[in-house]
Amino acid sequence: MDKKPSSWISHIEAFVDSSRPPKQQAANVDAIAALVKNDLLTLEALVRDMELYLTTSDHSIRARGILLLAEILNCLMSKPLDGASISSLVEFFTSKLADWQVLRGALIGCLALLRRKKNVGMVKSSEARAVAESYLMNVQVQSLAVHDRKLCFEVLQCLLEVYPEAVEMLGDDLVYGICEAIDEEKDPRCLMLTFHLVEILARVFPDSSGSVASFAGDLFDILSRYFPIYFTHPRSDDLDITREELSMALMHAFCSTPFFEPFAIPLLLEKLSSSLPLAKLDSLKYLNNCIQHYGTDRMIKHAKAIWSNLKDVILNHSPHKTLFSTSELAGNMESEENQIAKEALICLQTAILHLDSLEKNPILSFIVEDEDIEMKFGLVSNEGTGTGISIESRRQLSAVGNILSVSSKASMSGCTRVFQKFFPRLMNILEISASSSSNGCNTNNGTSSLNFGALYLCIQLLASFRELILTSQDFSPQVITVQDGWWCMLQHFSGPLAHALGSALMGARSSELVNNNTGHEHAIYEVKGLQVLATFPGCYLPTSEDVYEYILVIFMSIATERFEDAFLWKLSVKALIEIGSFIEKYHDSYRGISFNRIVVERIVSLFQQDDSTMPLALKLDAISEIGTIGVDYMSRVIKLLEEAILSKFLAVCVEGRLEAAEILVPLLECYSNRVLLWCYTSGNFDEVAMQFALCIWNQMESITIFDKDAKIQDLFDRMMTTMKLLVGGCAEENQSLIVRKAYSVLLSTSFLSEESLPFSSSKLEGLQVTPDFVNLSWRDEWIVSLFASVVIALLPQTPLPDVKLLLNVLTTFLLKGHLPAAQALASMVNKWHVNIDKSEVPNAYTLDEAIEMILERSLLSVQSSSNLGKSDLLNKDERMLSCLCLLNNNSSFQSNAVVGLAWIGKGLLMRGHEKVKEIAMLLLQYLLSNPYKELHSDASGSGDSLDVHTSLATSAADAFHVILSDSEVCLNKNFHAMIRPLYKQRFFSSMMPVLLSSIKQSCSSSMRVALYRAFAHVISDAPLAAVVAEAKKILPSLMDSLAMLSEDVLNKDLIYSLLLVLSGILMDDNGKEAIIENINTVISDLIRLIFYPHMMLVRETAIQCLVAMSALPHARIYPMRPQVLRAVSKALDDRKRVVRQEAVRCRQAWVSMA
Amino acid sequence: MVTGLINANPIVYERKARQVRSAPTNIDEYADEPIDQQEIFDHIRDIKDPEHPYSLEELKVVTEDSIEVNDKQSYVRVTFTPTVEHCSMATVIGLCLRVKLMRSLPSRYKVDVRIAPGTHATEAAVNKQLNDKERVAAALENPNLSEMVNECLAPTFA
């Protein structure tokens, strides 16, 4: 300590010097605090050495000194200190509170000491009281600056929270002092604290004879000035306080003590009638909270006032739109109006619940006896039967409905009273008599539309009643043991009501429903009413069994007959599903039986009939919806669908009824999109999928002869997709089950079963020589395709049987141009197991061997069918290539081989295998092979072979697209492909130099076109970031390829993607440099593309690129300006509007640069 | 310069919602989309009034109906209504309209900009001035005027 006294003294000096920057001063504090913390300096020594600074008569130095000490204490919050030093420090700071020049330091010091935790030495409670006393005597809070005020409030808060018993003794002095301190506060940060202060203060003095009780008026007077909070600071403000937070804090302060009641309630009720929506909303929220906090005794006397105020708000602010539950736009955008109504209803509910004394609920009585309600009720419930309800009465209607439903939802007693009062009258208006006969449906003598107002209210009542039973049932199992009067009433009425609703629903003509909204509304509430009646829980069902069944029958008849009216149909199906889910949820087996009988059976039989009256899509909708009710239902639906699919499949493939395919495709779609999805979420996917996949394979096995025409591409694709989904979602063991099954079926194909197993090598040879000799039956084709789908979707770890054979078969099909086979092969090589133990499986291939074999097969087979011997050529690649080129008359083979290679390359690339390079080189050589050389040697049929070559080169170029693009059909995440990160980048960077150099070397134009095509595919499919990084190298070729490819109409999509690459380059700093270097070509190429006739997007993008280029350095682009302007002016007359608009922008951009 | 504003307190009308053209589902690449009223209106609706921070659309100086266009005959006529009768800004507004259309339409178009009959004190004079090529060109040579025009047109290119 003695060694370097000067070092920390200098820190003190630096801090006291107020001219230093604040950052440096903070560093000084930290330095000293660190010394103390590490016991290199004791606190006593520090204070002793600072004596001069702490006691000098120079105010500024003293203030700085004390501030330093306080800040150091602040840093030592967690360092244990002994009681004596804390005492002396507290005493010191307490006394300094009287010294206004050093107040800030004193406050910070007090705060730092008061905030100390027990384990590191706390301030004693007597000392805390001394602090409070000194504070009350000396500090004039409101005369201080914001920062100091905030500190003052924090000190107070700390005292109240940590030493309540110490400060409680101060009594009135404390409360008065706080009143004085918080009076007229305006800063939001401080306000948050003051509101909180009041809240804690009320906690410290809870007694009715306490100080808060006596000062309640004054305190509330101070608080009430802030209500409602008006705060318009933007959110980005550094205060970081929102209006909502302030309002919440104030609300808590309001609710903190019941002594505020005489002042708060009148104020809130008064503000409730304010014209400011915000004030209304706030008062409702506050009122709601206050009712809960002030207690019933205090609030009961306000009941009448609260009710009448709430009534006004609800009646005047109820939204009229909520009646349209169909229109979605009202729902998501909650207007202030809606919020007010919502808050008011919540408040009403609280009031009903809380203001309930001596079994007498004043609010409820008010509601039931209210004249306004009575009047409105009469008014709206008699309002027009059907068309043309004015917005105003709509509003009234929803208001009354909401009030009634809230009051009946609140409690059993409320429900009883409301029900007794209103329900009979509603029934009266609806002309429903409580006849017990089930044929009471004729009461509304022919007029099929019910009174809408009454209907609405009635349904609201029933719904809230049902909700009440549902919620109270959770607490006590027997709610309605006593058969109340209203309960009997409900039982009496429910039957006729259901009949009336049902007949109204059936009577409404569909044209009415389509044409106007009122029809829709009627339907909504009629359906809802029936649904509510049918979903009362268990023994509380007011309706008898046959009424319940009647409801189901009504819905079913709509679902089966009224399908041309989509709205009504959807409503009733939804209602059925709701009823079903309700039964499922409450395990109501008794009603479940009739539900099954009436609904499920009916829909099932409907589905099984092949009558064409009901559209298939709706049938599928209904049945898949039914399935979502529960597992049992779904398993039924699944069975049904599977049967249907299999039978239709038979119909198509064996009997050749092509029209069945039109049914089969949507069936499959429904199955794979909805059913499988549901199974996936509910977790029994594996079993379902495995069963069905095996079923399909069994079916395939049993069908021996396929109809000739049974190859419909759409159906084919759907079937394969379904199979992939089925297999892809299964676990490993199920997959291997499916694979084995599929394999056994595969072996039964005609081309494999002709010779006995084991598969002889001579057979293989035979296949090799002429791959298309195998005249495939349709069955074989189906089987191979489905088998390929299975292979595509397998997990990597699922074992495949007899890989050698599979490779052979698939390769053969690949050469026949069978795309799924190629994809399956690609999936196989992609997921190939690397670590196969050779000793265990002796004839297993390694991946390399497999690839080698595929390559040999696919290429050598072509060769051997030509007349060349194998031995003539030296290099393998050269050999393969030349034979391909000679094979002019067998072009489809070559293209097929190229496509197959591309897919296999893709599979290899995705797993990051080296062999992909070999394949890429092979593809490149197809591109590079010069057809003219061959033409010279081959005198005959030159034109023909040229065509062949170009098509081959084109498919080789397109192979790059296959390799780099993402496929939805195979090799993706869903089908468990192995995907190395950044594989596209890797391919891009390895291929790009090769492609660029071969473009440079190429001599013939047709070869160039092919090369550019490949190049275009590679750069447009590679990730943009990788391309942009190479911008300098590729830009010239990019421009050339744009120019070259734009000659052919067929390339328009490719050109568009190239332009997108170019615009990506334009957005990058690195890329911009490259553009500037080639500015002439870029601009002239873009100008040419402005007039590209075949695609609007190309023209538009080209102009957008030019706009972006106008921001490049002036000196470089200025020379191009006339050229660009001339072109763009012409584009102003483009045939497409979008292009013209871009041209206007572009022209302006280039004109204004001058 | 005039010290006070000519129309210190203009009525501001609500902006019409931008009509989004429904994109046809199958786009025929080679079909023509002729220039129509709405397109012309889209060009000029955002021009800023020379003395207020409002667009001509908001002040109802131009409306969609005040535009006549015939794409086949390459002719367009815009009739605008100054906010007050004695508005000396009418010429500037007209100049803005003309310049904007000149820059946005193909060169084959003949542009005619007029004041709505009976809405301005010196209607004939302004009309003559606006449709005189030489005078328009001369006006644009004036750096003050051209700066003003460019400022008014700036929002239309956003």
From TrEMBL, chain B:
Transmembrane segments: none annotated. The keyword Aminoacyl-tRNA synthetase does not apply. Keywords: Chromosome partition. GO terms for biological process: chromosome segregation; protein maturation. It comes from the Eukaryota. Residues 38-112 form the MIP18 family-like domain. PANTHER family: CYTOSOLIC IRON-SULFUR ASSEMBLY COMPONENT 2B (PTHR12377:SF0), CYTOSOLIC IRON-SULFUR ASSEMBLY COMPONENT 2B-RELATED (PTHR12377). Belongs to the MIP18 family. This is Protein AE7 isoform X1. The lineage of its organism: Eukaryota, Viridiplantae, Streptophyta, Embryophyta, Tracheophyta.
